[in-house]
Each structure stands twice: as C-alpha cells, then as structure tokens.
Amino acid sequence: MSETALLVIDVQNVYALPESPLCVPKFEESLGRINKLIEACAAKGKPVIYVRHAHRADGRDAGRMFDFAGTAEPVSFVEGSFAAEYVPGLKILPDGLHMVKRRYSCFEGTELEAILRSLGVNRVAICGYMTNFCCETTARVAHDKDYFVDFIADATGTPDLGPELTQEKIIEVTSATLNSGFTKVFSTFLWVSELC
C-alpha cells in the first residue's frame, strides 16, 4: 500500500474575500470539502502538508510571477498581509506540516520533496486553490517526479474567467486534462471512501 500525503494548497484569505479579484465562487463549499479531506487523513494518520503562497512586499522574490507577459503588475500574496494568511475556517491539525512557496508549484524552491521522501510518501493528494494554477502545476510536477497523484477536483476552486469560463468549466477541463496522463481525479466523497 502506498503512503499518501495530502497537500492543502493556498487556502488563503485572498480567495475568500468578496472584494478580491481572486474571490472563488462558493468558497465555503470547497473549504468544507477540504476540511473533510484533512479530517479523514488525521483519522488515518496520513500526513497533511499546508502550503501558502507568499512574497516580499518589494517583489524581490517574485521573478516572473507578476510580469509574466513583460508588463509589471502589483505584487500580491504579500508576507504578513491578511490576504496571504490562512482562512479562519481552515482546519489546522496540531501535527500538520507548514511551508511557504513563491511559485505556482509547491515543489519549486521549497523543501517539499525532501519532506515527502523523509516520510516515505509516494502518492500525493491535491486540494486547494487555484485549480488551474497552483493545484494543476503541482500535480504535473509531482507526476514528473514520479509520484502517484490524486487530484481531488471538487476540493479545489478558482475564480471565473468570464461567462463562458466559469469555475465549474475550468475544473471540468483541468480534471479531464490531468486525468488523461498525469493524475487520477476524484471527488471528495470517493477519495475519502477509498482512503478509509
């Protein structure tokens, strides 16, 4: 049986604030599913790793994050800001592991792989925000590093990108792509049922 770790990615206030341009529709619903995954892992003694995205206010550590097209944008996810903190409703386990990333992938420039190896993990389960950025990028990188990857689609979320590209459509398309060669895609209910 494989050892699985749950990656709880970027469950931060910036995605829950109604005034935020990154506000995720039905945020409380996806957060509830994320908490169910955390509780299931806690009950089975599976490691839970919480990851937050954060940058220095001056953007020295941001690289191309905020000028990917060549035009600089304001730095967001600023360290110490309310927007970059965990949402108050997130279940934090006393023995959960915590790390900060500065890129979309949870592996880039972090100690994640060393932690996973030290725990004997060969499968990661992914939940959090945003479906098509940090969650998808981490899933693809994990696959390339030869981990098995479970993508818990309904425990991810992302802002709508317009009337045609709603959160539901983005999750559907991202899941279909990942399921065709990178990950196994699950609902929260199915993943918890299989885990337990």
From TrEMBL:
<dbReference type="InterPro" id="IPR000868">
    <property type="entry name" value="Isochorismatase-like_dom"/>
</dbReference>
<dbReference type="Pfam" id="PF00857">
    <property type="entry name" value="Isochorismatase"/>
</dbReference>
<dbReference type="InterPro" id="IPR050272">
    <property type="entry name" value="Isochorismatase-like_hydrls"/>
</dbReference>
<feature type="domain" description="Isochorismatase-like">
    <location>
        <begin position="4"/>
        <end position="160"/>
    </location>
</feature>
<dbReference type="GO" id="GO:0016787">
    <property type="term" value="F:hydrolase activity"/>
</dbReference>
<keyword id="KW-0378">Hydrolase</keyword>
<dbReference type="InterPro" id="IPR036380">
    <property type="entry name" value="Isochorismatase-like_sf"/>
</dbReference>
<protein>
    <submittedName>
        <fullName>Ureidoacrylate peracid hydrolase</fullName>
        <ecNumber>3.5.1.110</ecNumber>
    </submittedName>
</protein>
